[in-house]
Amino acid sequence: MMTRSRFLAKSNQYELIPPDGGWGYVVTGAVGLAFVVGFVPISVFVTVFGPFLASLGDETSATTLITGVYSTGLFLTGLPASYLLQKYTCRRVGLYGIIIFVTGNFLTIFASSLSYMVLCYTMQGFGFGLVFPSTIASLTQYFVRKQTSMMAVIQVITGAAGIVWPSLTNKLLEEYGFRGTVAIFSAISLHGIPAVLTLQPAKRHYKQKELKEDEEKTNPENCLANTKLDNEELTDENLNIKTRKSLIESLDLRLFKDPIYLNVVFGLSMTLTSDILFLYIIPIILEGYGFNRSDVTYILTVFFAADLVGKILLGILSSIVQLQNRYVVLIATIIIIVLRTAYTLTSSLWHITILTALLGSLRCCIHNSYALVFAEKYGLRFASSFSLFMVVVGIIMLLSGLLSGYVKSLTGSDIMVVHFLTLMCIFCVVPWIIEIIIEEFSRKK
């Protein structure tokens, strides 16, 4: 009791800062598990559902439609997620989401038509769309200096699962068939529930840091920590005032008035959407080249193994050097454009394997970094800036999925779909380079 009183009496001499460790490490592992549940199984969607979708019609169009709906639901949920995260804890919002996600998974077992599949994957996308920002927001509350490293750890966990998933899927299909495999995947999705339950409010684990007399006013990090706590207190004391705030203020839509934010969001949305859709159609492209299921499994395993190696190397590098995540995304996207173009010019197993490994190793530069771009640049506004970004990605994902199907039906070529997805990356690279040039010119002037 004495210790508590002493702290209260001298509370103005301390700041509370994120632990950068402790329970945060448990949260990191839990977020990794949640990502495995939400992102890894969809990477083998064509392997599991391909024959079933082929029996319903065009496999490529159905794949881009369903996976597009899933990703669209996931990212469009960013807007309601932003609102819910202002009212409730990350754990509660994540729990709502994982229950919806798991329900959609189990309903997929009984799939009998394309429209039914679309409904099930819409549920899954909406559910995981609540889980995703909840876990990321919780993680950024536990870490400041180690954000990039912890994100790398999460991506390593996801990448390790991605390596074994194609082989596991083939064995399950041989042993239990199509619906048995879907049922097992649905059971695995239940692991997301204990994962989100670990997302305790970070302020329970904040550490005290003694301030010098003049530090409270001059240290921007103190402003960061104190603002977080003050916002929470104001939320409780002025609930009636908060409920009368406008929609623009509550969702922070003023961010869309910032041209730099618009450029960041549009560029990241284009390159992220392109990467996700490209991964979904890799098996279809490989089958079009004449590779059998064993070859496809081997190449996908190489892809995820290279992805894992890239994540480990990026994690090590980020712990040594302070990386600017936006530049990491930009450089990786430029190289990806070149490699994808080469991907369409050869059908040699050896060449395809090498190109796939290179593409896999670069994928981490996008998936490790895109959330951290907003954490770096927008700090306290991370939740709203990232949630609005998710909405934009969802819209672009929906339109891109529909356009990919249209390109396939118009040309009858999966290669043209790859070219379309590669073109999307250019809409990230060019505006970002123009912005960098303008900023550099303004700085010199």
UniProtKB/TrEMBL annotation:
<feature type="transmembrane region" description="Helical">
    <location>
        <begin position="125"/>
        <end position="144"/>
    </location>
</feature>
<feature type="transmembrane region" description="Helical">
    <location>
        <begin position="61"/>
        <end position="81"/>
    </location>
</feature>
<feature type="domain" description="Major facilitator superfamily (MFS) profile">
    <location>
        <begin position="27"/>
        <end position="443"/>
    </location>
</feature>
<feature type="transmembrane region" description="Helical">
    <location>
        <begin position="21"/>
        <end position="49"/>
    </location>
</feature>
<dbReference type="InterPro" id="IPR020846">
    <property type="entry name" value="MFS_dom"/>
</dbReference>
<protein>
    <submittedName>
        <fullName>Major Facilitator Superfamily</fullName>
    </submittedName>
</protein>
<feature type="transmembrane region" description="Helical">
    <location>
        <begin position="349"/>
        <end position="366"/>
    </location>
</feature>
<feature type="transmembrane region" description="Helical">
    <location>
        <begin position="378"/>
        <end position="403"/>
    </location>
</feature>
<dbReference type="InterPro" id="IPR011701">
    <property type="entry name" value="MFS"/>
</dbReference>
<feature type="transmembrane region" description="Helical">
    <location>
        <begin position="298"/>
        <end position="320"/>
    </location>
</feature>
<feature type="transmembrane region" description="Helical">
    <location>
        <begin position="415"/>
        <end position="438"/>
    </location>
</feature>
<feature type="transmembrane region" description="Helical">
    <location>
        <begin position="151"/>
        <end position="168"/>
    </location>
</feature>
<dbReference type="GO" id="GO:0008028">
    <property type="term" value="F:monocarboxylic acid transmembrane transporter activity"/>
</dbReference>
<dbReference type="InterPro" id="IPR050327">
    <property type="entry name" value="Proton-linked_MCT"/>
</dbReference>
<dbReference type="InterPro" id="IPR036259">
    <property type="entry name" value="MFS_trans_sf"/>
</dbReference>
<feature type="transmembrane region" description="Helical">
    <location>
        <begin position="260"/>
        <end position="286"/>
    </location>
</feature>
<feature type="transmembrane region" description="Helical">
    <location>
        <begin position="180"/>
        <end position="199"/>
    </location>
</feature>
<keyword id="KW-0812">Transmembrane</keyword>
<keyword id="KW-0472">Membrane</keyword>
<feature type="transmembrane region" description="Helical">
    <location>
        <begin position="327"/>
        <end position="343"/>
    </location>
</feature>
<feature type="transmembrane region" description="Helical">
    <location>
        <begin position="93"/>
        <end position="119"/>
    </location>
</feature>
<dbReference type="Pfam" id="PF07690">
    <property type="entry name" value="MFS_1"/>
</dbReference>
<dbReference type="GO" id="GO:0016020">
    <property type="term" value="C:membrane"/>
</dbReference>
<keyword id="KW-1133">Transmembrane helix</keyword>
